[in-house]
Write a structure and sequence with these properties.
about 260 residues; Rossmann fold; 2 domains; 7-stranded mixed β-sheet; two-stranded antiparallel sheet; elongated
Amino acid sequence: MPKFTHAFVPKGRHDQHFLADKRVMHRIIEYADLKKTDTILEIGAGDGGLTRELSKYAGHVVAVESDNILAEILKEEFESTNVDIIHTDALKLEFPAFNKVVSNLPYSISSEITFKLLSYDFEFAILMYQKEFADRMVAKTGIKDYSRLTVNVGYMADCEILETVPKGAFRPPPEVKSAIIRLVPRPPIYPALNEKLFRQIVDLAFTMRRKKMKNCLRRICTDIDALPSNLLDKRPEQLEIKDFVDLSNIIDTLK
């Protein structure tokens, strides 16, 4: 089985765009502050470019790859090393123990994999996303990018954009710019009494984001007058995470 070379770039391997710029890879390694005591989870190992760099600095790397051909090549290359290649769909995998995540994520599963990761306990993640998606993760209240993604991620974690990555850093180049995010999980600053209800309210609100909150909430609350009027007269993108939690907690006590 052939190993990857810089000249070998498989075409059409799902939606993966392999990071080829060594300078970007090295900055990712710096952001991750890797130590020999670290076990790194990498989702979407692709052609193994980032995997090789991770293996130099971390004690153990668990690299997940769903593509049959890529996984087989990587398994042969990393046999008897500190890298374990797991050939499966990351969304279906119960992740083994890890303390950091470093990944150039397949962009089509960005949302699902982010929330799956946040159900695990780890120090932090350095993740590559589509720039537009990253902008929504870190958006401030009151702007167009502020969304259900912003609120749901911000409820569970702190995140920041570390840098924007140009299309030319990848092979094949994607149609969009990318961004590197640092994601740090933490307990909610303002805990919801009923997290399922909290998420239901957030999802409903941003589905009706042009409406005021009083119109959004009539679908799930029969006693609108019991809710804070200053929040009811705002649109979803004008509410802070704490505001959504407050509404959720009040509605929960009314049931």
